[in-house]
Known about the structure:
The complex is a heterodimer.
Chain A lengths: L25 H23 L2 H24 L9 H11 L7 H17 L11 H12 L1 H4 L16 H4 L9 E2 L2 E2 L3 H6 L12 H13 L6 H17 L4 H9 L3 H8 L10 H22 L4 H20 L10 H4 L2
Antiparallel strand pairs in A: 1-2
Chain B lengths: L26 E2 L5 E5 L9 E2 L6 E2 L4 E4 L8 E2 L4 E11 L2 E10 L18 H10 L12 H5 L9 E6 L8 H8 L1 H14 L4 E7 L3 H10 L6 E6 L8 H9 L14 E5 H13 L5 E7 L7 E6 L4 H7 L7 E6 L6 E3 L12 E6 H4 L12 H5 L6 H9 L3 H6 L10 H5 L6 H18 L1
Parallel strand pairs in B: 1-14, 9-10, 9-12, 10-11, 13-17
Antiparallel strand pairs in B: 2-8, 3-5, 4-7, 5-6, 7-8, 13-14, 15-16, 15-17
Bound molecules: iron/sulfur cluster (2 copies).
Subcellular location (chain B): Cell membrane
Pfam families (chain B): Complex1_51K, Fer4_10, RnfC_N, SLBB
Subunit structure (chain B): The complex is composed of six subunits: RnfA, RnfB, RnfC, RnfD, RnfE and RnfG.
Amino acid sequence: MSHSIALMQEKLLNTPAPHLYSKRKSSWIMQQVMIALVFPTIAAIYFFGWHVLVMVALGIGSSVAFEYLYQKWKGIDITISDYSAALTGMLIGLSLPVTAPWWSIIVGSAFAILIVKQLPGGIGRNAFNPAVAARVMLKVFFTPWITNWVTPQPDVVSTATPLQYIGNFSRAVPEHMGHGEFPGLWDLFLGIGLGGNVGETSKLAILLGLIYLVGRGIIGLKIPVIYVTAFAAIMSIYGNFSFTYMITHVLSGTLLFGAVYMATDYSSGALTPDGKKVFALGCAILTALIRIVFNFPGGVGIAILIMNGFAPLIDKHFASRIYGHKKRPAQEHS
Amino acid sequence: MLFQFNRKREGAYTEERKSRTEHRPIEEATVPEYLMFPLAMHIGAPAKPTVEEGDYVKLGQLIAEKDGFISANIYASVSGKVIDISDQPTVHGKGPCITIKNDYKDVRAEPLFKQGEELSQKAKLALIEQAGIVGMGGATFPTSVKLSPPPGKEIDTLIINGAECESYSTSDHRLMVEYAEGLIEGIRVLVEVLPVKKAYIAIESNAHESVAVMKKAIIEHDHIEIRELETIYPQGSEKNLIKTLTGREVPPGGLPADVHTVVANVATTYAVYEAVRLGRPLTKRVTTVSGEPIKEAKNLWVRIGTPINHLIDECDGFQSSPGKMIHGGPMMGRPLTSGQVPITKGSSVITFLEKGDIVPAERTPCIQCSECLNVCPISLQPIMISNAYENGDIDEAEKLGAMDCIDCGNCSYICPSKIPLLENIRSAKSAIRARKEDK
Ligand code: SF4
Ligand code: SF4
């Protein structure tokens, strides 16, 4: 018997190289980020109760629905199966305090999907991170309803967050805050007895999410590490090298959540290797500035959004030097 | 992970599929009845036939001679009769070939020189040229040209490229394991020809066996050093190898000689040994025939001119139906649709892929994951070039460095949205070239 390929050769494909492709798909990547968000979700359920699940479900459901309806209406490809809208919704659900009214989640999703994501052309084309833009928008326009911070059960009372006591030009950590003691570092790390947005309470859960994302090769350590260390360095200097002051700032508010899940967003962040460093550094400086000077809620979100706006410029400037060339492309052609 | 923090990855960990052949000794392939010798089996001008239809030729007899500076001689790999000189299927489409009918007598022509003769440095270089040796890793650039750099570009570093980065390919690896002595002799010849003090043998760290064997073989040779390299694609590309080993970067559009370096592939070095020590011209090579559809994947000593069909038979045919037949590896190889295509000097591996492996998933929008930038070995921004091309902005594509792309395929391989990045970059390159010619 001859094994000649003659009979089969008509069926051979002759598309050009490469002939193999990695198995990774975009939708798989989005799923991985959602899985990494499960850690903070579990922590949030533990601290704030089952209502967190309702928030997350509402976020995912409304985001996916808005994307579907918009694309249906526009008569363009429906892309909800790429999990990107679902991821945005999950982030929005986790970005609000447990007292946030249900409609605020839906308003946030509509804003994120319709205005921030779909208006510029959908996935990969949005200059700003939809979930971050939504939370900042909500904070700015709906403050009385959604910055009504609460500490977790059993007695849900409105309290201030630690940030309000260490921001606004304060250079040291006070002993008291409101009616109670200022939370200890360990409590801040684990998220015990803290108010705030449900997803960012437990720093431990966020770190687990980070380990998962880095281990899976979804994000690199570059952005989170530079963001957090640069921020910590600035706070150290400002706080007269008080370790407690610095670490309290690092563990408070959205910083870690933002550094892991928001500043690392593909579409709205920088693309080039060095651009990412500059991007993260910019986030750190702006966050510190907003915290020290303005005592404004949502400083991390605003910082990231501003840097989102600069990302294309940063990429253009910091695009890598090509092998064999003397300078970066931006300098070669200027 | 940590060390990746600052450094760009500059490559991809492509799937490795070498296990079927890496421990299997090289076998001698049987010789077919008809052998085809493409006149353009090297880069540069096609060789000019020195025989005519009906001529009797001996094994090792010149059948086509180099035509110009960048060209190479071609020798008969069997004895027999020239029955045809016409266009036949080759790796690069149909092209002129000399067809020889084998008489199965292997009557040998005179060697290139008489054994025992003292050879000068010049004579050795001339022998390498005469033997028709070209880069056997696939580039097929005439070796003698590499070894005679223009004045001002004196060579100070010799790199023996044993970094076989394409999956499936193990022909260089087996050559190192089984023919270490000849290889070392080949390196000695190259060092005699070039005024270099040091020669590096670059081997990927996954090839433990060849590393071990070569380490033993170089014990008495102080001027040869083994460099184990990370197993990452495209480690074996000339430009990357030079940078990894010497820190130098070949300038855009330049050659290794511009940074005083010569890179010679392992198989090429072995051919140099056969030519300069034994007086044998280049008439055979080791070729890996592998891939899941192949029943018995093998490394074979193949006479140049043997059609691929014959090698498929040598490997007991297929165990599943192939979707692609590739001259070279899955990242950079050329797809073939005819089994009549003969093995040439640059055929290091023939890869067969299953249907399920070759069809990319549907293209989806770019998610800006920056993976294509991370894996580009020369730090391009593949997606930006691709976008520029798709927007018709050829100027921008050129500014972004499209012409520097080395066609390694990493960007298209890694893209989770399956965007045909390399295809677009290639088209951008042709557009840029076409525009230059118009001017
Ligand atoms: S742009 Fe060219 S050199 Fe860079 S990864 Fe793609 S194919 Fe390779
Ligand atoms: S790898 Fe693909 S999806 Fe990722 S940035 Fe490049 S082109 Fe876009």
